[in-house]
Amino acid sequence: MKPQRLFPQIFVVAIGLLLLGGLGAYWPTLVGAKSPEAPLAPAATVGDGITYQGYLTDENGVPLNGTITMRFVIFNDAVAGSTLWDSGDMNVTVNDGLFDTYLSIDTDIFNGEELWVSQIVDGETLTPRQEIAPVPMAHTLRPGAVVKGTANALPNNYMLEVHMNNDAFAFNRGAITGQSTTGNAIYGLADNGRAIYGQTRDGYAVYGFDGGSNANQGYAGYFYSTNGVGVYGYSNGNRAHPNIYAPGVYGQSNQGVGVYGRGDTSNSFTFYNQGGYFVGGKGLYALGTDSAGEAGYGAQIYGSNYRGMYVQSFSGHYDAYFGGTGGIFVNGAVVNSVANSTSLAVNLGETTIAAGDLVAMVGVAPSPNGDMMMLAVAKADVTNQSAVIGVAVEAYSTEAIIHDDGSQTIGFSSTSGAITPNSYLTIITEGLAPTVNVTSLALVTNGEIGDKVSLAPAVNGEMTLSLSENAGIIVGRMAGPIDEESGTVPMFIDID
User: Fold this and answer.
1) How far is CA 32 from CA 29, 54, 131, 145, in A?
2) pLDDT of residue 354
3) Which of 85, 128, 198, 234 lies 20 to 30 angstroms, CA to CA, from 28?
4) Which of 260, 279, 263, 283 is CA-nearest to residue 271?
5) What are the pLDDT digits (tens) for 339-351?
6) CA distance 233 to 179
7) pLDDT tens sequence across 375-399
8) From CA 391, how far away is CA 425, in angstroms rounded?
9) 3-134 — its CATH code?
10) Are 9 and 23 in contact (CB under 8 A)?
11) What is the pTM of this model?
12) Residue ranges per structural domain of the chain
């Protein structure tokens, strides 16, 4: 008895996703779908298997009856390929040519790529293999449904592509929507790539909205990283209206703080615990626009247990530069950790000044910006020692600074080397000067820490220092012994 091919047969995928068409030599007619062998409870989800139904006749068209051995094998090619699933031999009951059976196919083989089924009936392999075709429409996916495959084998490199044409904007419209009462409405996981990726031309690549009724409880966007960056923002846009800042991250709040950053304060002396860390041409730019209330501060800084603000320059420039007409207002004590006051000056003398030299005032000169005057000094000698003002610290050079509005000013930065005429320098006018060049070694044997040091009358046309309080102008007090090798002494400058 040899079976006769009559009509196409059909697999029906129990999960409602795939319809497998024309699978075998028996060409059975299509009949209704069969439920799985174990009926599902009302609240259960559909299973993984599929129902196979058909109609068998012999070569003369007579319907078959009895138990027939059948086997179904799924390949990834119409002729050759690899075996992806094998049912093994199955005893299938046939009544008047009609039969149905349940195949517990491993759903991992459904990855969007072509699949082909080979049928074996009573040991006979039937040809050709039949392609597994999709169903025309699925109303929904079962919970836990998986869509998988190799992205680079797909035309658009996406496992799932959803389109929605709607020009009207509304919060409840979206190509993909997720809803959850307590968990994640949409959850993305990527080992090395992007868990969720958004791209737009003129809208929002990723948009988050919190419409909760309880104030201060929800987050429009929440980002958490266990070993990386919580939020990374990057912009390659040109600074032009309306995006005049082209920010990597932009925050705005009508009632509170535009951007709020908080660092772990469990160890306040570690480097990586800042509430905010900024690197750029300007590490931080702050602009206050409020004309009332807080008076539009560009920055308002508080320290609950330590410094309100700590500023340090790593390139020899100013630790802080205040260029406004008001300068600096301090409501409280001023503490200087290096115990001195320094001023910027210009060398208008005819002699090169070295660090540690006493300098004398010779007048004032315009600053490079032309908006204010600055102190002019020269190396102290017998001709100007009555105008000694302090001790030279280091040379300074000028550089152009371009502001956001295109204007240009001149800034200063420290440099190495001697301070030549018409160049700039900083001087200590009061407080500790670690090195002061001395011309008399009388201090070596007689001077002690705390002794006053004066400018003595000239000897043979040379300016000298003395420990006598009546010798002349008091420069300051000795803060340590003379270094005989360098000819310098630390001194607390207090000119009187």
Assistant:
1) 10, 10, 21, 24
2) 94
3) 85
4) 263
5) 788 899 999 999 9
6) 27
7) 999 999 989 988 999 999 999 988 8
8) 10
9) 2.60.40
10) yes
11) 0.52
12) 3-134, 340-493
